[in-house]
Amino acid sequence: MPNVGQRPGRRVFIETYGCQMNLADSELMGGVLSTRGYTAAPNHEEADVILINTCAVRERAEERVFGRLSYLLRFKNERPEVILGVTGCMAERLREVITERAPYVDLVIGPDAYRRLPELLEQCQESDADPVIDVKLDREETYKGLQPERRPGISGWVTVQRGCDKFCTFCIVPFVRGRERGVAPEEILAQCRDMAARGYKEVTLLGQTVNSYRHEDTDFADLLEEVVKIEGIERVRFTSPYPTDFTPKLIATMAKHDKICNYLHLPLQSGSDQTLETMKRLYTSEEFFKLVDDIRQAIPDIAMSTDIIVGFPGETDEDYQKTVDALERIRFDFGYLFKYSERDGTFASRKLPDTLDEATKGSRLAALIKRQEAISAEIFKGRIGSTVRVMVEGESRRDANDLCGRSDDFKMTVFPRPADRELKPGDFVNVRITDATSHTLLGEIID
Ligand code: 5AD
């Protein structure tokens, strides 16, 4: 490693908001900085550099970041030499606002500038004046050749695609993360092999529309075929796919390989064709149902989850009811359900006035959550009496006598620590399910 700019002893704390891609990006920044002599600080108090890796997808996520920044201002007043940086999606979108609302921020960089992070930090040190800003998007950047500093453990992420070309009318992602780019398969496979060599057992491939992945002649199914060959990687997951790019070939690949987990997060967004059209989702509800049926036919025991937005502009009671009906029909194992949040710069914010009042949005969301919770509870309780194969993650958060881990179909499973043997993270056990809540399976090891 070249020694340029190396500053031994500089400690960095990276705090992450938002999606798994952001967590992976934070690991990437950690990797970039570690090659320049930075080490990870355990908390912000012990750090010389604090980076807040942000999310812009809903207003609430942004407000949380501003809240956090004002908290950190007090800390920065005590230790003005600490560098405070805002990175990622919000940086891209709100560079002016951040410098206005949080002028004490030293560094603002977007998701395509992480390679330049060490130099940008150098610039912060050299100048006390204006914040250092780098929010350029780059059609080519896939961070080839950079090694993320992964959280230690058995499960890790590999980003296979950056950016998004779909332009759903509600969504800020294409504006803050730029155009879609597939990472070269050699690079992805090298990372997966490296993870296997370091003892990781599970890899989750990440992309905004991960199954739209393409790099030269390699499509997503081809990529999965290669990843499953890697010895040591026992489980392969991916998130999030886009419905209309879900090919029969991909379904067949998933069905063929035991290593590809029987769990799929498949965002529906709405059950109303009218709403789907104004959202510019490229499918109808019937097409989505057909896809779910095809997937379930090929992989009968697959679990599914989804994303739904309620209160999108123009959503009538009938449109909303169609979403409720879709959840009833499909019966997702769980759902991430959101209230529409208008995002500046999107098509919806320019052309589709946010007509619904907060109370209507709120009551629709609450009713939908209640319905989904009931469905989840029924599905989870339906597993009582069955046996699931669990990869041990570690101690349960509630009780040190219990261990926990996920089933192949992504259900958190909790079971008593066995007295007769020491289990370590990454071990596999069969657990007989004796009880369940709407989010967790409870059981005991049978072998
Ligand atoms: N308002 C509410 N929810 C949104 N999502 C994306 N943009 C918005 C928005 N403007 C949700 C979608 C997406 C998930 C990651 O976040 O459901 O799938």
From TrEMBL:
InterPro entries documented for this protein: Elp3/MiaA/NifB-like_rSAM, Methylthiotransferase, Methylthiotransferase_CS, Methylthiotransferase_N, Methylthiotransferase_N_sf, MiaB_methiolase, rSAM, rSAM_horseshoe
Broad EC category: transferase
Cofactor note: Binds 2 [4Fe-4S] clusters. One cluster is coordinated with 3 cysteines and an exchangeable S-adenosyl-L-methionine.
Entry EC no(s): 2.8.4.3
SMART domains attached to this UniProt entry: Elp3
Pfam families for the chain: Radical_SAM, TRAM, UPF0004
Subunit and partners: Monomer.
Protein name as it appears in the record: tRNA-2-methylthio-N(6)-dimethylallyladenosine synthase
Species assigned in the record: Lujinxingia litoralis
Gene that specifies this protein: miaB
